[in-house]
Design goal:
heterodimer; A: MetI-like fold; B: mainly alpha; MetI-like fold; 2 domains; two-stranded antiparallel sheet; Sugar ABC transporter permease (chain B); transmembrane helix (chain B); cell membrane (chain B); MetI-like (chain B)
């Protein structure tokens, strides 16, 4: 790098630092504000006195949250969904990516199947046909509707990511294994999968975040609140206050006190799993999303 | 090479994944026949009476549909432009930053909002911009009366674009940063020896270095002209802002699943899917022609 020490350049450096710090702060400040809100007293929150520091620090909203049974039921539903969804994704992705990483010479239908996959990724019948399909399959109120419908929509992208990774592995590996008499399953499990750890970690993290964050299918396929995953539950009680879906008991609690601090507590707790996997996401996903763009 | 007979194993490996996609990706596509039917719950998706283009005729006779298409395209195009430009500017600033530690920290933090759901961020944003929220507190300091930000139809599209850029600019920046690190440092040194100032180096070395990436992203973004972002709009809007903020996907959700007008919602969804598919097709083809970009 060329060193540049003119006054103009120094001033430019300082300007950049100031702008970057300001922008970076705006990314975390709203999250911090939510935490401060959840730790404030209800009256201060309702009066709009909370800004960057909790007013009258207390844990009442978290205590109140502990009594909200549905929150924990939904939390558990989301955990199950993430485990099933990410597990299935991790199983199916290498199984699909490996054959599709072969050239057309080794696997004649490869390109045809690839186009079918691309088509399912780019075209869909819309929400209503999907809704009626799930209804016909009797999967309403079942966690499998969340796992399978959402998973199918993110599967192709993950397969393409892994496939491009497989294609960039040296071909000599394949050839050496073949000379030793290895079959396709052995090559996949003992040669490709161990080498594909970074890309498999990437698609798993994508899958975890997707299943944790997705809320619409919970809303559409679950007819009763008790089956809602966490994001759907929060969407219904925090973002969209619809009195018609609330139980008598909830309505009463609503009217008794401002729910602002409790809502902030719910939002903050729902954020924690993402914050926990975030450092790992950091490590893998940058590599992961640029993987797909590099081709031989 | 001894790969004869491998193909049948390849099919076996692909079978579970394709079965999954067949049920939850491909089968629902056939449900688009609903758009040409008069749906009866008893006769089901494939047995209802055929009415030809009746649903489409009805769709174009509604005032709603025109406005949701206009809203969708307006919000989507603003988002496309802002999400191309803002991350580029930010990536350029970050590229000029000479403090490596700070660079890492800034990157780590600005990616975060991308991984949080719109349920969570919607809850936070609505609170920030509520009548007694921080945004209005700041206005109050300057003696400006409180504004009901998310109750004003004239503001809604811009708030949607602004908050979307806030959530995504860090993530969108990654591709640009990858392109920037790919620029040969010798070019900067050569420009420096020729006496180019810092600004001229940005202009003549850095910008041409990201030109291909930027145009590729711009072309690929074409496929999103009808995607205004369901998750975001759904969590931010309310009946007060339907006139400017209701988009195709939210309208399809309400019309189809809340008002049970399955055929009409399917027809609108189908129109969106078909136009979107054509746009993506064109954009991929153009990207392939100009920059040799391939999906697989």
């Amino acid at each position: 790098m060329v060193r540049d020490t003119t006054i103009g350049s120094r001033a430019f450096d300082i300007l950049i630092i100031v702008i970057l710090i300001a922008v970076t702060i705006t990314c975390v400040l709203p999250l911090w504000y939510t935490l401060a809100m959840s730790l404030s007293t209800k009256s201060a929150a309702a009066a709009g006195q909370v800004s960057l520091w909790p007013v009258g620090f207390n844990l009442n909203s978290y205590k109140q949250l502990l009594q909200d049974n549905q929150f924990f039921v939904s939390f558990w539903t989301s955990v199950k969904r993430v485990l099933l969804g990410a597990g299935l994704n991790l199983l199916i992705v290498p199984l699909m990516a490996y054959p599709l990483s072969k050239t057309i010479k080794d696997f004649r239908l490869r390109n045809v199947l690839m186009w079918v996959l691309i088509f399912t990724m780019l075209f869909n019948g819309g929400l209503i046909p999907l809704y009626l399909t799930v209804k016909q399959l009797h999967l309403f109120n079942s966690i499998w509707s969340l796992v399978l419908v959402g998973g199918a929509q993110t599967l192709v992208f993950n397969v393409i990511l892994a496939m491009n990774f497989f294609r960039n592995l040296p071909r000599e590996l394949d050839e050496a294994a073949l000379v030793d008499g290895a079959g396709p399953w052995y090559i996949l499990l003992k040669v490709y999968v161990p080498l594909a750890a970074p890309v498999l970690a990437t698609v798993s993290l994508f899958s975890i975040v997707y299943h944790w964050n997705e809320f619409l299918y919970g809303l559409v396929f679950m007819t009763r609140q008790e089956f809602y995953p966490l994001q759907t539950y929060i969407q219904q009680v925090v973002v969209m206050l619809d009195p018609s879906t609330m139980s008598q008991d909830q309505l009463q609690r609503m009217s008794q006190l401002s729910n602002r601090t409790l809502n902030a507590a719910k939002i903050f707790i729902a954020m924690i799993p993402v914050l926990v996997v975030y450092p790992f996401l950091q490590r893998f996903f940058i590599h992961g999303i640029t993987l797909g763009s590099v081709k031989e | 090479m001894k790969t004869k007979g491998f193909a049948k194993h390849y099919y076996l490996m692909l079978l579970p994944g394709f079965a999954w996609l067949a049920v939850f990706g491909i089968f629902p596509m056939f449900g688009i026949v609903l758009a040409f039917e008069h749906f009866s719950p008893v006769k089901g998706m494939f047995g209802s009476d055929w009415v030809g283009l009746e649903n489409f005729r009805y769709m174009f006779s509604l005032n709603d549909t025109k406005s949701i298409f206009v809203n969708t395209i307006f919000i989507a195009i603003m988002k496309i432009i802002a999400n191309l430009v803002v991350p580029l500017v930010f990536a350029l600033l970050l590229n000029e930053l000479r403090i490596v530690v700070m660079k890492k920290w800034v990157q780590t933090i600005v990616y975060l909002p991308h991984f949080l759901s719109w349920v969570i961020l919607g809850g936070i944003v609505l609170d920030l911009f509520s009548l007694d929220g921080p945004a209005n507190q700041i206005l109050h300091v300057f003696g400006i009366d409180a504004i009901n930000f998310f109750g004003k139809a004239s503001l809604f599209p811009f708030l949607a674009v602004g908050t979307d850029v806030w959530k995504e600019f860090g993530f969108n920046m990654i591709i640009y940063l990858a392109a920037l690190t790919g620029i040969n440092p010798a070019l900067y040194e050569a420009a420096g020896i020729d006496g180019a100032s810092r600004m001229r180096r940005i202009w003549h070395v850095t910008l041409p270095g990201v030109r291909t990436t930027a145009s590729l992203l711009a072309v690929l973004a074409l496929g999103n002209v009808l995607n205004a972002g369901f998750d975001q709009i759904f969590n931010l809007y309310n009946p007060l802002v339907y006139s400017s903020g209701d988009i195709i996907d939210t309208w399809v959700y309400r019309t189809g699943l809340l008002n049970m007008q399955y055929e009409l919602a399917t027809a609108v969804g189908l129109l969106k899917s078909v136009v979107g598919f054509i746009l993506i097709g064109i954009s991929y083809f153009a990207a392939y022609k100009w920059t040799n970009y391939r999906i697989f």
